[in-house]
Each structure stands twice: as C-alpha cells, then as structure tokens.
Amino acid sequence: MDQEELLLVVRRSFEKVKSDIKTHDAYIQALRAEIELLKMHLQRLAEKTEQTQRNEVLHIPSRRNKLYSKQKIIETLSAGSRPLVELKEIVVDTEHCCSKASFYRYIEELRLSGNLLLVETDGVFFVSRSVHATK
Fold it and tell me: What are phi and psi of 21, to 5 degrees?
C-alpha cells in the first residue's frame, strides 16, 4: 500500500467515525429528552401520590364520588325546592361534583328511591326533598 492509499483508508475511517459520532450524539439527545419527560412524569406521579395520601389522612371525600354527589344534591335541597337547572348549575358547574350526565342519573336514582320529588310547573322542573326523606 502506498502513502495515498493509506491516506484514503484513514480518511474513510475518520469519516466513518465522524458519522458514528453524529448518530450517537442524536441518540444521546433523544435519550436525554426521554429522561426529562420521565422525570416530569415521575414528579407528577409523586405529587398525585402525596395528594392522595393527604386526602386519605384527612378523609377528604372525592368530589367525583357518587355518594358525595348525591349527598350534595340532598344538602342543596335542604333549603327548599329549586328549579332543576339551578340545582344542576350548583352541583355540576359550580361545585364540580359530577358530570352533567351523572347528575341527571343521580336525580333519577334519588327520585326512584323516594328521596326527591320532581314536579313540572309551566315547563320548568322543580326538585325538592321528599316529605318522608326529611323525617
């Protein structure tokens, strides 16, 4: 092998090494980005776990709980009869106790169990606690 052939082989080897370094650098950057995402995910999980533990210690009921939502409906009606739409605004939109679909399902369950009365007057539905449910 003469000197030019040797120089060509060295150049090709050097170009291959440079190409490999670029490939590995891109791979390392992708891994670093993935590590950062995993760190953020772990931090969010730790925060959720910490909040869950606090709630368990303090016995704070979940606002998206069926029993809690039904109790909130009954409690809101303790002051008297309300239009169904107003009750929905309080329980769903303001208090965020449940979704709108769940709210209407809970109203129906409470009505069927005899805890609520649903009366229509002039096209407006009013909800009140049942007389026997207040005793």
Answer: -65, -45
